[in-house]
Design goal:
The chain is built from two helices and seven strands. It is mostly beta strands. Strands 2-3-4-5-6 form a five-stranded mixed beta sheet, covered by helices on one side.
Length: 168
């Protein structure tokens, strides 16, 4: 849905209540964010003198890839966010700069949904896989502990270099 800035009336709120669609061909879904199954939104758009305010209440079902099992699962989100949009940069405002007359509402909502997703999604009930033949599974804390004890082997060859000054 494209909103025209010039057609918004000053200090008048426009309510939008609808189901928003996010097709894969129009949006950049990057793993572990696979798709949006459902997004119902209650969005209010208000134009002020220097900016446009968008209040978004979203009920979302996103399809994510589990970090442990690599299988897709549904992840429910309730999002309440306020976005300020302006044509020009102002020091005291925390507004998104969108030049021109068109505001693509779904792009803004997609960004809100993307920023609210977990970085490492884990399906409820999923467990970290066990180690097997020729490989082992360790968690982040164990990895940091091992690296601090053994150092980084990529730089071990540097220990063999003699840095004595040969010019003296």
């Amino acid at each position: 849905m494209i909103i025209s800035k010039s057609k918004l009336i000053l200090d008048k709120t426009i309510p939008i209540q609808k189901e928003f669609l996010f097709e894969k061909k129009h949006f950049n879904f990057v793993s572990p964010f696979l798709s949006i199954k459902k997004c119902y939104g209650n969005v209010e758009i208000t134009k002020y003198r220097n900016f446009i305010r968008i209040n978004a209440d979203l009920q979302v079902i996103a399809v994510l890839e589990c970090s442990y099992t690599l299988k897709p699962f549904n992840h429910e989100l309730l999002i309440h966010e306020e976005v300020l949009i302006s044509d020009k940069y102002e020091d005291e405002d925390e507004a998104i700069i969108i030049p021109g007359d068109a505001i693509e509402l779904e792009q803004i909502l997609f960004a809100l949904i993307s920023s609210d997703l977990p970085i490492k999604p884990i399906k409820p009930g999923a467990e970290l896989p066990k180690s097997g033949d020729g490989y082992r599974i360790i968690d982040d804390a164990q990895l940091l502990k091992e690296r601090s004890q053994s150092g980084d082997s990529r730089f071990s060859k540097l220990d063999e270099i003699d840095f004595d000054d040969e010019d003296n």
